[in-house]
Amino acid sequence: MNSLRFDAISRLSNAGVKVDATTKITGVFNENVFTLQTARQYLSDEAYKSLTASVKSGKKIDRSMGNQIANGLRAWAESKGVTHFTHWFQPLTGLSAEKHDSFFTLKGDGTPIEEFEGAALIQQEPDASSFPNGGLRATFEARGYTAWDPSSPAFIMEIGEGKTLCIPTIFISYTGESLDTKTPLIKALVSLDKAAVDVCQYFDKNVSKVTATLGWEQEYFVIDAGLATARPDLTLTGRTVYGHAPAKGQQLEDHYFGAIPERVYAFMRDFEQESYKLGIPLRTRHNEVAPAQFECAPIFEEANLAVDHNTLLMDVMTRTAKRHGLMVLLHEKPFAGINGSGKHNNWSMSTDTGVNLLAPGKTPKTNLMFLTFFVNTIKAVHEYADLMRATIASAGNDHRLGANEAPPAIISIFIGKYLTDVLEEVEKRVGDKFDEQDEAILKLDIHKSIPELMLDNTDRNRTSPFA
Questions:
Q1: How far is it, in rounded angstroms, from Cα 50 to Cα 53?
Q2: What is the CA radius of gyration of the chain?
Q3: pLDDT at 269 (0 to 100)
Q4: Minimal CA–CA distance to 231: which of 17, 401, 9?
Q5: What local confidence, expressed as pLDDT, does residue 113 receive?
Q6: Residue 386 sits in which domain range?
Q7: Residues with Cβ < 8 Å from 406, sequence gap 6 or more?
Q8: Is residue 161 part of a domain?
Q9: End residue of a domain, out of 109, 144, 179
């Protein structure tokens, strides 16, 4: 084992793999995604309208439209050199799953052809007995279905020289139980939409749809693959379970927002290029607090699509790291004594009229629609704290919670002094004594060339799970 470590150290290099990056992100963004703009080129008017209505309004696509949409998908995929397709789903393994089938088939007389029928687009049948089910089913109950989710666009995954058309799907049992993480999310989004629209109608009759939005932040560690291979605990579990503390951890706090190492920088640029092709709108990258820890974050999206993109990104990062002789650690707490990797979720709700329901605006006290959703969100966190805690109670995350910078393993909510004052004044029914805080300006006198900075109405709280 010692020889493995010494050999890995002798092979260490700071040189990054050369990455050919485009000068403009817009030049490659969505290159491998069957967007509605792309669909317009490959579908008939009837099929395009059916797909658009499903994506934007949640209407069911008639199975009779399936063949037309499937033919358009195949034509687009084949124009990019794709020969296989897969239903891409998220079982209860914490990973994504896929089974590849080719467009190739034989006619009754033995004639070889390429085809992709609507039935294959809409529904497939993996062996459900081989996936975890949380105790919902007996072992012999094997039938399960993957079903197409039109709200998340199909995409082409490039692995080496191969390309596969991936169709995002849900995964359910023969009797309809959810066997994945996407199905409960979609059901929750539908329930939220209905309940929120009913409330919005009291304030704005033009609101007909409310969408949950999500901007996630992905923290991760990057280490040399050779050094990782010399650690059986790291290779098998994704975290270290024994060993000495490092000579230097994060005591000096000199890694956070520091200069990104060249080798890691090349890796970042590489996986970002792959992500842009898949429509993942990454915008931020930086060093995190712990040594060898980093973070990336995208622009916010509709919640279902954002979760798909995060799952997809973790796969892209893991594969791309191998090209650079690196290993990405996505475990929530791979090393004791230093920060773990959290995944902050910047969540909100927006209406189809363009209103962010959790944005107080300039006059939160008089913004009754904001106050209504604000107090009900607080009430929901209080009422369902145990359920929320259970949803994040994974083995990996429980190693992190309560350690170093992580929040404690309880659910609390932080709203800041200003909004606390607003609620207290509303409770007292004092209508005229409360001054609305329009804009606060922090003036820096350090140097005459420093511009005026806008001060937020409250500080941030890093230790509250819901803030």
A1: 5
A2: 25
A3: 95
A4: 9
A5: 92
A6: 358-467
A7: 339, 340, 342, 400
A8: yes
A9: 179
Specify the 3-state DSSP secondary structure of 298: strand
For the chain, how many structural domains are there in total?
Answer: 2
In this prediction the pTM is 0.91
Residue 381 lies in a domain: yes
Tell me, yes or no, whether 60 lies in a domain. Answer: yes
Dig out the tokens for 426 from the structure. Answer: 């509303």
Contact 350, 369 (CB under 8 A): no
**How would DSSP label each residue in 387-436?**
HHHHHT--HHHHHHTTSTTSPPSS--B--HHHHHHHHHHHHHT--SSPPP
Which stretches of the chain drop beneath a pLDDT of 70?
1-2, 4-6, 8, 12-16, 21-22, 362-366, 404-405, 429-463
Q: Residue 440 has what pLDDT?
A: 47
Question: CB of 72 within 8 A of CB of 42?
Answer: yes
pLDDT at position 89: 96
Chain position carrying tokens 């006059």: 363
List C-alpha distances in Å: 92 to 175, 258, 275.
17, 37, 24
Q: Which of 149, 179, 209 is the last residue of a domain?
A: 179
Looking at residue 43, what is its pLDDT? 95
Instruction: Give the whole-angstrom CA distance, residue 401 versus residue 388.
Output: 14
Q: How many CB atoms lie within 10 A of CB 201?
A: 12
- Separation CA 463–CA 325 (nearest Å): 35
3-class secondary-structure state, position 69: helix
The region that residue 156 occupies, defined by phi over 0 for left and psi between -120 and 50 for alpha, beta otherwise, is beta
- Domain containing residue 87: CATH number: 3.10.20.70
Work out the angle between the directed axes of helices 45-57 and 63-79 (0-180°, nearest 10).
100
Q: How many residues does the chain have?
A: 467
CB 34 within 8 A of CB 155: yes
DSSP structure string for 112-181: EEE---HHHHHEE--BGGGS--TT-S-TT--BEEEEE-TTS--EEEEETTEEEEEEEEEEEETTS-B-BS
